[in-house]
Amino acid sequence: MSHELQKPILRWGIIGTGLISSWFVSDMVVPRADATAKHIIQAIGSSSEEKGRAFAQKFGGDATPSIYGSYDAVYADPEVDIVYIGIPHAFHKDACLKAISHRKHVLCEKPFTLNEQEAQEVFDAAKKKGVFVMEAMWTRFMPLTEQLLRLVHQEKRIGDVHRVFCDFGMLMDLDSLPATSRLKDPALGAGTLLDIGVYSLTWGLLGLDEGIASAALTPQVFSAQSISEGIDVTTSIVLHYPQNGRQGILTSSMKAKSDPVFARIEGSKGTVFIEGIAPSLPRRFTVVFNDAAAERQIYDAPPKVGKGFFYEADAVANDIVAGRVENATMPWDETLRVLALMDGIRARGVGQASK
């Protein structure tokens, strides 16, 4: 990595050419006045060179990346600084380990791996090689999210937090999908929890925890899942913090679409209502105070440029140039904590289904 006008330059190798990779690459090439780093699409790995070229032409803007008909060639490319892993989560661990073995930095889509044990393997490997690794939980890096957490936890605008609700529902026609679909195949980590429920869980933790430093306050977890053909089509989670009485009610479903106002954080002085296209992409939050005489306050996200993946990418670039191997907003321990919670939820769901 080099520098230009004090901005770090990061050369990306893209692993996978599916939907999430198309969003990420499109964001990397969009011009931005507020950019704190420069991103170059250096290489694209796909199942075929033809598919990779079509992907680059459609989403890569003016980028002229090397196109490879395999992922291994991307890991081996000496011009690549970091790989972005956007393939189904069942393959995340192996992809991370291969990238790390070539001393590449890694930004891997959520969920980082299928379970806590796999994630620990990746972090252990990264520690040995001294490379940067982060789970791509992009929502945590959005300016609107940062503003909301500052308002709730630092400024205490709504007083003491009592409860958080969040729902992420997507109406999915599973019957029309082949058994091999990543949304249906249990071997690929299919189900609402790993795919979209992780966002509901994340909003619960963001709202109930004072910050990453207080994450040691591990909540008690109660959950139920509706299992169909080996995957959860609906998941409901209750987080309970015995230390302070806070609770989170967090849900995900393939049976119904969530409301645009997808979450709320309730406090002793008021409530924050969070809205957007989906919990992954908040666009506005409104503070409504218990005091009827107090005027509600509305906070909007910055004018929309791209989708917002560049915020996490900028953070990664600045961490790497500073010599850090993990990020303070999404540190390794937080990835492990979230996966451990989901491991327990899935284990209970399987147990419930077998009764």
From TrEMBL:
The keyword Oxidoreductase applies. Keywords: Oxidoreductase. Residues 10-135 form the Gfo/Idh/MocA-like oxidoreductase N-terminal domain. The keyword Oxidoreductase applies. It is an enzyme of class 1 (oxidoreductase). It catalyses: D-xylose + NADP(+) = D-xylono-1,5-lactone + NADPH + H(+). InterPro entries: Gfo/Idh/MocA-like_OxRdtase_N, Gfo/Idh/MocA_domain, GFO_IDH_MocA-like_dom, NAD(P)-bd_dom_sf. Its EC number is 1.1.1.179. Residues 150-272 form the GFO/IDH/MocA-like oxidoreductase domain. One of its GO terms (molecular function) is D-xylose 1-dehydrogenase (NADP+) activity. PANTHER family: OXIDOREDUCTASES, TRANS-1,2-DIHYDROBENZENE-1,2-DIOL DEHYDROGENASE. Belongs to the Gfo/Idh/MocA family. This is D-xylose 1-dehydrogenase (NADP(+), D-xylono-1,5-lactone-forming). It comes from Penicillium arizonense.
